[in-house]
Amino acid sequence: MIRQCKLSDTNRIYSIINEAAHAYEGVIPADCYHQPYMPMSELEGEIKRMTFYGWVENRELVGVMGIESVADVTLIRHAYVLTPWQNKGIGSGLLEHLMKLCQTERLLVGTWTANTGAIRLYERYGFKLQPNKDELLRTYWDISPRQIETSIAMELVSI
Whole-model pTM? Predict the structure, then answer.
């Protein structure tokens, strides 16, 4: 079941993001990896900017994904699934749900260049790598120059 997350889900979202982000260790550049991957203060700021949706199994959130409207685009943000629940269609289910919620003509997603699993998922749903990724990441995301350098941006070809 997918549901919109509530403010009371903040601690669970924090746990999901930081547990799932352990997969980045040794994969993304070492200077970009730290624990907690997303400090609570950063998550609280993100919750104010976007809406998180969660996948529920046995009355427990096991995966989350955010959606954020920025200017003339919609962004898919912070897609994380707890390790034991990965490769069970949860990421796909959340992405399909958020794609239906998109109310702009452009739907974008950004991720680490080294996050090949996520890139393959987005490609299966019609997202294409964008050659102007630096411009897109600077315009629509609030991330560091180092993260821009080591990330990609993808756009859904048609909604």
Answer: 0.94
Helices (H), 60-131: 90-101, 116-124
How many domains is the chain partitioned into structurally?
A: 1
Cis peptide before 29 (omega within 30 of 0): no
pLDDT tens digits, one per residue of 18-77: 999 999 999 999 999 999 999 999 999 999 999 999 999 999 999 999 999 999 999 999
* Cis ω before 131 (30° cut-off from 0): no
Q: Provide the 3-class DSSP secondary structure of residue 113.
A: coil
Domain of 6, CATH number, reads 3.40.630.30
Question: Domain range for residue 6?
Answer: 2-156
